[in-house]
Amino acid sequence: MSTLNADPAELQKFSELAHRWWDPASEFRPLHEINPLRLGWIDGKAALAGKKVLDVGCGGGILAESMSAVGADVTGIDLSEKALSVARLHLFESGHKVDYRLVSAEAFADENPAAFDVVTCMEMLEHVPDPASTIAACARLVKPGGHVFFSTLNRNLKSYVFAIIGAEYVLKLLPAGTHEYAKFIKPSELTRYCRQARLDTQELIGMSYNPLTKVYSLGRDTDVNYLLHTRRPG
């Protein structure tokens, strides 16, 4: 029997905050603010309407619901029961349709190989003990020719200053202790994990935050936050 690829402390941390997931002024404000940006980028690459989509590490469902809103058939998986309960409750308010499941990516891939047109795994890899295992599961879950999207945090001095000291302690955009620097992933590492999982890199793009305008934008700067678009060969 394989060991569950999850950190109990990470699950506990997000479970304790789960009731605040849909409060745009809460600890999850950055997720609400970046969601239109990442949704637009994903939709532009994969044309989500009518596609069968899986959101790995869906949490309270911010991205999953927004993909449903543009016409995708969305399943969301997570290992936090509390977060999933909040996600299911919010469907009554929004009227969107998402199938939420309490299951790991690895176990779900065993049950549903090559079942999805698009797989997203956003802001999650830096919270699991073995990101390569999650990436391999995402690769198994997507159909040949399908799209897999990741986002995570780079590991360097700038990302430590901006993502931990700046975001958690100075600007207080996130609760202190949200991230562990040692778990950040360099783009070279992420693309290597993807190659090992037989995913072909399509685009690497950075996401930046301007503390003066309080606006997020996509661009060439991958020093802190970045997103990766990959495809499984057809």
Automatic annotation (TrEMBL):
Pathway, per record: Cofactor biosynthesis; ubiquinone biosynthesis
Coiled coil, from the record: none
Any single Pfam family the record assigns to this protein: Methyltransf_23
Residues annotated to bind S-adenosyl-L-methionine: 38, 57, 78, 122
Entry protein name: Ubiquinone biosynthesis O-methyltransferase
Protein task: O-methyltransferase that catalyzes the 2 O-methylation steps in the ubiquinone biosynthetic pathway.
Reactions performed catalytically: a 3-demethylubiquinol + S-adenosyl-L-methionine = a ubiquinol + S-adenosyl-L-homocysteine + H(+); a 3-(all-trans-polyprenyl)benzene-1,2-diol + S-adenosyl-L-methionine = a 2-methoxy-6-(all-trans-polyprenyl)phenol + S-adenosyl-L-homocysteine + H(+)
Family matches, as CDD domains: AdoMet_MTases
Record keywords, A-Z: Methyltransferase, S-adenosyl-L-methionine, Transferase, Ubiquinone biosynthesis
GO molecular function list: 2-polyprenyl-6-hydroxyphenol methylase activity; 3-demethylubiquinol 3-O-methyltransferase activity
Enzyme Commission number: 2.1.1.222, 2.1.1.64
Domain of life: Bacteria
Name of the top EC class for this enzyme: transferase
Annotated organism of origin: Thauera mechernichensis
BP-aspect Gene Ontology terms: methylation
Similarity comment text for this entry: Belongs to the methyltransferase superfamily. UbiG/COQ3 family.
